[in-house]
Write a structure and sequence with these properties.
heterodimer; A: mainly alpha; 6 helices; 82% helix; B: alpha+beta; Thrombin, subunit H; 2 domains; 6-stranded antiparallel barrel; 3 helices; 12 strands; 37% helix
């Protein structure tokens, strides 16, 4: 149970890590969105309620720290989480190629939502961002996602082991 | 439960999506306000971000400084090389310019002379104190003969005393063996300008009754036939009438600085004049 209390803090730290350290490697061009990979992972491995709430939380943190439109990342992450949840039940989630492809598609979907949002809400045309930003970002996220999946899996195992220890003692 | 289990996920998804859309809608309508939860997150995240950014900045600065130092050493080496090349070039151009200036002055002098002249370069100068001579790079092949006067743009240098095919030795005005018939420009008094080594020259055989003042210009008189009349020999620096004898003791500073002589003109006398 303790890791459900720990998770929000870890998610916040992940977002901080993403917007500080990982930003360094983006060279001010594309974002290395590990949080999106985490959302996809949650979609593949958690049920709709817990995963949905964690995705909402992750989106909320990202909105708080980076987004100009508060709530946009919450919406996108929930959307991607349920899409992953839906797809996760139909494909083999251990295949790195499939993970990479799906993560890349989700990044493009995220880009598309942002572009459409800007188009309809602010009447701003940022269509150029899809080929210039979101396509390269999709490639990067796609390439990183299998590795991130392995790391998250290991971290999850570690959390569960840590969670069980007090229970054994009791 | 009111909702069947198989619709749980759909309902939760719908609720969460509605919540997020409501948040967007709410925040869009109240842009200027920051919600409590958002403030909390910002408050919690800010110190972390600060620590990370300060550390990263330190690392970045150290790295940049290291790279900068490495780059600076290379740049320093490159600039030193460049500096050496440019200094060499500048020196070269400056020498060319100065040579041009000197040659221009010689050319001006040449234009003023009626005689034929041959320009020559000083290739050596005697460093011994006894004989004051220089070696020029023109000889008999260029028409040089013993006795030809040698000038610079500033005045008389001396006369040729030895000639080879492509080199000649010039006895300088300040050599003790040099005697040139001269006159004081202001008073037109004539005398013999004799070399006195490093001390310069002495103007001899000027009677005590003649008025000679320091600063008087001494010119060639043209009487001996070697030097044309009116060439600058030097300037009187000291006049002494002390002691016994008929003549004054007059020190003359040569017009030419022999230590800096680089190019000269050898004057070829008219065929009839020499005879």
């Amino acid at each position: 149970m303790i890791h459900y209390l720990l998770l929000p803090i870890l998610l916040l730290l992940l977002v901080i890590f993403q917007i500080t350290i990982l930003e360094l490697f983006s060279f001010g061009w594309i974002g290395i969105e590990i949080s999106l990979i985490v959302v996809i992972y949650l979609g593949f491995h958690l049920d709709g309620l817990r995963g949905g709430i964690l995705s909402l939380l992750l989106g909320f943190f990202l909105d708080c720290l980076t987004s100009a439109i508060f709530g946009l990342y919450m919406f996108i992450y929930i959307l991607i989480f349920y899409l992953s949840n839906l797809v996760g039940g139909k494909i083999y989630a251990g295949n790195p190629a499939l993970i990479a492809l799906f993560a890349a598609l989700c990044t493009l979907l995220e880009g598309l939502v942002i572009v459409l949002f800007y188009h309809f809400v602010f009447a701003a045309d940022i269509l150029y961002a899809i080929p210039k930003i979101f396509v390269p970002q999709a490639v990067v996220v796609g390439c990183l996602s299998p590795l991130c999946f392995i790391l998250i899996q290991r971290f999850e195992v570690f959390l569960h082991v840590e969670d069980r220890r007090p229970a054994h003692k009791i | 439960m009111l909702i069947p289990h198989k619709y749980h996920t759909t309902v939760v998804a719908a609720v969460l999506l509605i919540i997020s859309l409501a948040v967007i809608s709410y925040s869009a309508s109240r842009l200027s306000e920051t919600g409590f939860l958002r403030k909390m997150v910002l408050e919690v995240a800010a110190p972390f971000e600060d620590v990370i950014n300060v550390s990263l900045k330190g690392l970045r600065d150290s790295w940049k400084r290291y790279i900068f130092l490495v780059g600076m050493e290379d740049e320093n080496r490159r600039l030193r090389r460049e500096n050496a090349v440019l200094s060499e070039q500048l020196n070269h151009y400056r020498e060319g310019y100065l040579e041009g200036m000197r040659l221009q002055k010689l050319l001006d002098l040449k234009r003023n002379l009626t005689n034929r002249v041959v320009a020559a370069r000083v290739v050596d100068r005697s460093r011994a104190s006894l004989f004051k001579t220089i070696l020029i790079d023109k000889g008999t092949a260029d028409g040089m003969r013993v006795g030809f006067p040698v000038l610079s743009e500033k005045g008389v240098v001396g006369r040729i005393i030895e000639t080879a095919w492509h080199a000649s030795q010039v006895l300088l005005l300040i050599d003790g063996n040099s005697n040139i018939d001269g006159l004081i420009q202001r008073s037109r008094v004539q005398g013999i300008l004799q070399g006195a080594g490093s001390a310069g020259c002495n103007l001899k055989y000027i009677s005590r009754v003649e008025e000679v003042l320091p600063g008087d210009v001494v010119l060639s008189s043209g009487l001996a036939g070697v030097f044309p009349k009116g060439l600058l020999l030097g300037v009187v620096t000291k006049v002494s009438q002390k002691g016994e004898g008929l003549f004054q003791k007059i020190d003359v500073a040569p017009a030419v600085d022999f230590g800096k002589l680089e190019e000269v003109l050898a004057l070829i006398p008219d065929a009839g004049a020499g005879k």
